[in-house]
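Q: Got a minute? One more chain.
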Amino acid sequence: MSERKVLNKYYPPDFDPSKIPKLKLPKDRQYVVRLMAPFNMRCKTCGEYIYKGKKFNARKETVQNEAYLGLPIFRFYIKCTRCLAEITFKTDPENTDYTMEHGATRNFQAEKLLEEEEKRVQKEREDEELNNPMKVLENRTKDSKLEMEVLENLQELKDLNQRQAHVDFEAMLRQHRLSEEERQKQEQEEDERETAALVEEARKRRLLEDSDSEEDTPAPAPPRLALQPKPTAILDEAPKAKRKAESWERSVGTLGSRPQLSGLVVVKKADLSRSTQQGQVSPTTQGPARSGKAADSAAWTPGASSLSQLGAYSDSEDSSGSN
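A: Always. Here it is, folded:
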């Protein structure tokens, strides 16, 4: 366990590294590497877009008979994600970029070529100015002349537009301001009219409700003063009792006026004493009819209340017989 991390290995005294056989590997052998697409491309077979950064399991090989300043150039083989067509591209160490070789077209290739051309022209100009001072003066004169021509063309275009347009910006702004004020004033007038209409409608509704309530409910009577009791009010009690008896007679009627009720009552024996004549009957009462007449004649007295006469009658014969 103590020699688990030891890096030095034991070599015997008779070890000869030249005797180790070397593998015969081809120079154009391929390795499987994991890489990402270096630029946006489009497959020529199916038209599938492959964006920059898409990961692939690619095969890598060294290009034979091609090098840049002793640096080898590598070729990569990938497959389209849709149709599995083979796409190849190489490294470009001169421009620190990649070059499309087969199976697809590189997007934005025209932009890249334009940038490369501008860089090439700028580099050539710098080389010329470095070795020839007169070339520097010529280039500066040419640049100033080109700038003046551009400014003149721009001014001509502005003048042409002004002659053709004939637009008075001040008048346009003034008209816009006036139209805005008119619009605001119109909106304010419309709001005032709507408010007045709503107020008028509410007032009419209130008037209608007030008129309906006056028709439905009568006007309240004025309050009356409480009457003071009179000292002679006790003398009016007898006429009140008489009026009560008359109202009773109008509603119920007298017992003597209804013959069907006269035979149902008998006269109490108020004249005889209870101790001597409890079981005897008066000779004047013979039969139910005479007793009823006698009861009517004895019970009814003019001017007396019918309620005061109810105590003079006993129960009916049926009720007395049942007892």
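A: Residues 275-299, 313-323 have pLDDT under 50 and may be disordered.
Q: Perfect, thanks.
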